[in-house]
């Protein structure tokens, strides 16, 4: 950031940034009479504020002061900004909501046979993305209504899951490198994508969610934002439960799943999201705000 070439009298937009590395860049850019817009990309979440506390909040406050525009993607992100970073009116006026471009992608450009009785889970597992909710579902699926495929899990986690489940469960583990096409095929061919992200992740936009929307594959999700925001605005995009507070959610899912008109309704809502996140629409909004 210190040694890069000097840009002057320009508009600069950064999609995603490291909070420490961006500071010298901002100082250099502003001294050279540039206008700088920053797009928050997984910078804001409860998990990050719990871990880094006042340090992260202080860094982001400084970054906001040195920037001309801050773009966020969800209402929950703005709420976290107000709660953890600043309630200063002048700084909040720099913030604008921007649709996330990956939600407007249309994948895949190839034919894929969908197996409506399969559920895909994508690792790696972590504290904000636990594997136990899907294990609870598999344990309750005593009639083997679904085939469960796990992708890119850590070996020790795969072993833990195997040891937790009955040998009769329909479970597959896929490991090793996947090309982008193979990855998209796995999403497009699944009946559902399982999103285990909990409240620690709220405020971030999952890339797996974006690819599920792009492929028209409904989700099974914990009730975290921005899932709720999308469902309120566009219609339900899948089965959403409170994995922590509702111990009976696996039974509710297994007892209600299979309604073809409901499944089509989920896919229509995803179509509305894709249409509203078209590239030209995002560019138009971005130019107007910046």
What does this 3D model show about the protein?
The protein has 290 residues and is an alpha/beta fold. It is 44% helix and 17% strand. The chain has twelve helices and ten strands. The protein has helices at 22-31, 46-66, 75-85, 89-92, 132-140, 155-164, 180-188, 207-215, 227-234, 249-256, 260-276, 279-289; strands spanning 11-15, 35-39, 69-72, 95-97, 115-122, 147-151, 171-174, 190-195, 219-222, 238-241. It has a six-stranded parallel β-sheet. Helix 6 links the parallel strand 6 (147-151) and strand 7. The longest helix has 21 residues, at 46-66.
Strand content is 15-25%
Biggest sheet: strands, sense, closure?
6 strands, parallel
Specify Rg, calculated over alpha carbons.
21 Å
Indicate the multimeric state: single chain
Strand adjacency order, main sheet:
7-6-5-8-9-10
Order of H and E elements: EHEHEHHEEHEHEHEHEHEHHH
How confident overall, as mean pLDDT? 94
Give unreliable regions as ranges.
none
- Quickly count the helices: 12
Instruction: Please provide the count of β strands.
Output: 10
């Amino acid at each position: 950031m210190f040694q890069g070439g000097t840009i002057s009298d320009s508009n600069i937009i950064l999609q995603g940034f490291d909070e420490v590395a961006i500071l010298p860049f901002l100082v250099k850019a502003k001294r050279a009479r540039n206008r700088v817009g920053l797009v928050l990309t997984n910078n804001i979440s409860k998990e990050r504020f719990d871990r880094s506390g006042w340090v992260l909040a202080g860094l982001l406050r400084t970054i906001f002061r040195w920037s001309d525009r801050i773009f966020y993607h969800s209402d929950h992100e703005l709420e976290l900004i107000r709660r953890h970073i600043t309630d200063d009116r002048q700084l909040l006026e720099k913030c604008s909501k921007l649709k996330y471009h990956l939600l407007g992608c249309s994948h895949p450009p190839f034919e894929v046979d969908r197996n409506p009785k399969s559920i895909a889970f994508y690792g790696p597992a972590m504290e904000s993305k636990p594997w136990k909710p899907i294990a609870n579902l598999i344990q309750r699926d005593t009639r083997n209504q679904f085939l469960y495929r796990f992708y890119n899990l850590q070996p020790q986690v795969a072993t833990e899951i195997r040891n937790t489940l009955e040998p009769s469960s329909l479970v597959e583990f896929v490991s090793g490198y996947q090309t982008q096409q193979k990855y998209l095929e796995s999403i497009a061919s699944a009946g559902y994508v399982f999103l285990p992200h909990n409240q620690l992740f709220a405020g971030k936009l999952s890339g797996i969610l974006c690819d599920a929307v792009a492929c028209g594959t409904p989700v099974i999700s914990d009730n975290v934002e921005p899932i709720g925001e999308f469902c309120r605005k566009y219609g339900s995009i899948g089965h959403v439960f409170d994995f922590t507070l509702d111990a009976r959610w696996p039974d509710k899912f297994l007892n209600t799943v299979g309604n073809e008109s409901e499944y089509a309704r989920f896919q229509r809502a995803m179509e509305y999201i894709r249409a509203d996140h078209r590239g030209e629409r995002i560019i138009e909004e971005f130019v107007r705000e910046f």
